[in-house]
Amino acid sequence: MTRLSWIGLGAATLLLAACGRPADKQVEAPPPAPSGPAVERAGPVAWNAATGGFELNGKPLKAVKLWTFEGSTDGFTAVGSKIAPAAGQGLSVQIADPTLRSPKGLNAPGAQCPLVIVRLTRTAAGDAWDAALYYSTATHGESISYLGKPLAGATPAVNETVTLVYDMSRQAIGAPDWTQSTIDQIRLAIEDKPGGAFVIRPVASADNPDPASLFPAPAAPPAPAPASPAPAKP
């Protein structure tokens, strides 16, 4: 057999072997990393990575529920949106539908955990920031009649991290239902239109030992300057 025949035989053998193997699975590429410098918006509540908890003005908050998304979705589910564990820590969310739900059966007493805290980083721009927080109890499901909105909840810029704080003792609609109920499940509606993307960092439901620090009293207006005496008549 000639040398060319040996080469042809070898090529045919490799081709047959390849046909016998299953096709490689297509792996979806992760969304591109955001460009620009990373920034974090300052606020009264912050995440302390060293202690693994949230703090209010430097003092630890007691979390009734805490989700850190370390290599898993921690039972959170979406409808249409793509969610997956993010590199390092967090939950990657590519918005197609505003629904992002916690696990059911939280059995969280609303009076003991009036704060819901959501730390997130925007990774792609969106057009319909909402950030409403819905919830269900044994007596009612999710409803526009019962929701919360975050304090200082302006839309974050791409690559900006914000810590959204919901004081459900002063919920936007339906108070005082939260504090009089046992919470079964929460739902975060980040944006109302598809296209935006986020990494959800830790999420917690916690106590509020210092309500005044979240709603500081307005500063007193400055005292009026004393009137100048009228000039003397000649």
Itemize the secondary structure elements and their pairings.
Layout: H1 3-20, E1 39-40, E2 45-48, E3 53-56, E4 59-60, E5 63-67, E6 77-78, E7 82-85, E8 91-94, E9 99-101, E10 108-109, E11 115-124, E12 129-137, E13 147-148, E14 160-167, E15 182-191, E16 197-206, H2 211-214
Parallel strand pairs: 1-14
Antiparallel strand pairs: 2-3, 3-4, 5-16, 6-9, 7-8, 8-16, 9-15, 10-15, 11-14, 11-16, 12-13, 12-15
Largest sheet: 7 strands, mixed
Helicity level = under 10%
Overall pLDDT = 84
Rg: 27 Å
CATH architectural name of the domain at 64-210:
Sandwich
Tally of DSSP helical segments:
2
**CATH homology superfamily name of the domain at 64-210:** Galactose-binding domain-like
List SSEs in N-to-C order: HEEEEEEEEEEEEEEEEH
Q: How many individual β-strands?
A: 16
β content, as a range? 25-35%
Low-confidence runs = 1-35
Write down the overall geometry.
globular
3D architecture notes:
This protein is mainly beta and 234 residues long. The protein has a domain at 64-210: Galactose-binding domain-like (Jelly Rolls), CATH 2.60.120. It is 9% helix and 35% strand. It has 2 helices and 16 strands. The strands form 3 sheets. Strands 1, 5, 7, 8, 11, 14 and 16 form a 7-stranded mixed β-sheet that branches. Strands 6, 9, 10, 12, 13 and 15 form a 6-stranded antiparallel β-sheet that branches. Strands 2-3-4 form a 3-stranded antiparallel β-sheet, with no helix packed on it. A hairpin with a 5-residue loop joins strand 7 and strand 8 (91-94).
